[in-house]
Amino acid sequence: MPAPSRSIAVTALTPLALTAGEPAGIGPELCLALAARRGVPEFVVISDPTLLHARAKQIGCDVTISEVSPDAPGKRSANANELLVVPVPFPAAVECGHPEPANAGALLDGLRYAVNACGDGRFAGLVTAPLHKGVINDAGIPFTGHTEFLAELCDAPVPVMLLVAGDLRIALATTHLPLREVPAAVTSDRLRAVIQVLLDDLRKRFGITEPDVAVCGLNPHAGEGGHLGTEDDDIIAPVIAEFASRGERVRGPLPADTAFTSASGHKDAVLAMYHDQGLPVLKYAGFGHAVNITLGLPLIRTSVDHGTALDIAGSGNADPGSLIAALELAATLAARQ
């Protein structure tokens, strides 16, 4: 998908697209919970209206579900206790807690529509409720996550996952990989590209003119001078030196056990080498109110910091805090853009 043209009239009134995620999970009821919230940025849900009606009845939620045209989803604002929905029907019945592979294609169709509609200005950005990766793969569709799927749709060569909780920003050099594959994936070219995307989007999306990035080492103690692995000295440090030589405030590799603390000084973002090096810190600091952002795309995309929570789907006990935070941050980034 090409980058949105400057001539596209995205304004403060242009709604955000909100995909409701795995229908057997908590995504649909999180969307329903937003209908009663005042002050939430304008959004339109992309999901199956029949599912939303059924889930609202199941959890005792008094919400009006109103279908809107996919061609003009932002023609009007939602009333109190109303959800505006672009209909994407699911072919198979939905049972809470039991994902159905037959619905995987419709879920991905909804994402494709949202990306195209962001590209032509019908939406100001995309917010996603969680998907269940396993059930999509069970449907015979290779799928490693929203980040990679959206990058492919947008023809974006280097998507970067960034998690935000307040002032804490943690980016990932690699995303959904088995741990044994991480060292081989941490290459000079990969790091160079990820750091560049991170610097560019900290400037463009967050308005930080001189971003300071702390880079974690791959090995314990950043390799301990080569005694605990050579990747830190041979791969990570030279790439950091390249950016520093150009005047960029990129430093490291820092031992990951102190990189996130005040001992490493001020930083606008920390770059972790792999998923479980960075995300446990972020989720400890702000679980339930943190936001996942995909950098390197021609559109704004934010998401929640949690999964589908199949075990509580249909109970009405899901906390919409992270989804609200994702909507608010997407609206802030869209206004800045």
End-to-end Cα distance: 18 Å
Low-confidence stretches: 1-10
CATH class of the largest domain: Alpha Beta
Helix/strand-derived category reads alpha/beta
Hey, roughly how much beta strand do the residues contain? 15-25%
What would your notes on this structure say?
With 337 residues, this protein is of the alpha/beta class. The protein folds into 2 domains: 1-156 and 298-337, Isopropylmalate Dehydrogenase (3-Layer(aba) Sandwich); 158-296, Isopropylmalate Dehydrogenase. The protein contains 11 helices and 12 strands. The protein has helices spanning 27-34, 49-59, 104-119, 133-138, 146-154, 182-185, 188-204, 231-245, 256-259, 275-286, 321-336; strands at residues 16-19, 43-47, 64-67, 82-87, 126-128, 160-165, 168-172, 212-216, 249-254, 269-272, 291-295, 301-303. The longest helix is centred in the middle third of the chain and has 17 residues, at 188-204. The two termini are 18 Å apart. The relative contact order is 0.17.
Q: Nutshell version of this structure?
A:
This protein has 337 residues and is of the alpha/beta class. The protein has two domains: 1-156 and 298-337, 3-Layer(aba) Sandwich (Isopropylmalate Dehydrogenase); 158-296, Isopropylmalate Dehydrogenase.
Task: Describe the secondary-structure layout.
Elements: E1 16-19, H1 27-34, E2 43-47, H2 49-59, E3 64-67, E4 82-87, H3 104-119, E5 126-128, H4 133-138, H5 146-154, E6 160-165, E7 168-172, H6 182-185, H7 188-204, E8 212-216, H8 231-245, E9 249-254, H9 256-259, E10 269-272, H10 275-286, E11 291-295, E12 301-303, H11 321-336
Parallel strand pairs: 1-2, 1-5, 2-4, 3-4, 5-12, 7-10, 8-9, 8-10
Antiparallel strand pairs: 6-7, 6-11, 11-12
